[in-house]
Amino acid sequence: MKVFVTSIIPEIGIEILKKNGIEVIQYKNYLPIKKDELIKKAKGCDALLCLLSNKIDKEIIEALPELKIISNYAVGFNNIDVEYATQKKIWVTNTPDVLTDATADLAFALLLACARRIVEADQFTREGKFKIWQSDLMLGKDLKNKTIGIIGAGRIGQAFGKRTTGFGMKILYYDKKRVPEFEKVTGAKFTSLKQLLKKSDFISIHTPLNKETYHLIDKEEFDTMKDGAILINTARGEVVNEKELVNALKSGKLFAAGLDVYEFEPKITKDLLKMKNVVLLPHIGSATVETRNKMAELAASNVVRVLKGKNPLTPVNEIRQVKRKK
Question: What is the pTM of this model?
Answer without folding.
Answer: 0.90
